[in-house]
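## retry 2 of 3
previous attempt timed out at serialization; input unchanged, resubmitting
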Amino acid sequence: MDKQKDILGIIEQLEKDYPRASCSLEYEKDYELLFSVRLAAQCTDERVNKITPELFDTFPTLESFASADISEVERIVRPCGFFHTKARDIIAAANMLLSDFGGHVPDNMEDLLKLPGVGRKTANLMLGDVYGKPAVVVDTHCIRITGRLGLVHTKDPVKIELELKKILPPEKSNDFCHRMVLHGRAVCNARKPKCEMCNIARFCDTFTG
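## retry succeeded, writing output
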């Protein structure tokens, strides 16, 4: 595979197949996306979107999250799983945003990683979706599909992020990752990929059709 050449063809086809590339989590404020991403860990975006309206209505400001009764937050987010940890992280993050960052989600990787419950995947999502910066969000879909394509030869998220940064045009990187999610859900799923329906199969190392 000529990675630099093929990535442009993959991007072009994915743009045709999924013209609207955006995060499926629903939010209005920057910190709402941050909290939604935390809730989405080992949970579907669809389920998170059913829960967050009540969560954001109950706690309409960052200050209200910071002073929230953790048991009330746990009650609301319980269907997302791991609700004790997620509720704790959300309240702690709200307090840190207010005390250290003026009530705004930071716009750089170093500060984002200081927030409770935030790893590189979440940080990159915030940088890309909130601040429009080049970002590579490595989630399970991205790991699976880029591996099958032969773009990367590791399952280590940090190594994948660095490898993709070498070949992805910076201005395309964030949307590419969103399209990986869409393609993973629609076609290249984990258990039984629909290779016969895949419009990027010609670029794929594992396609045998």
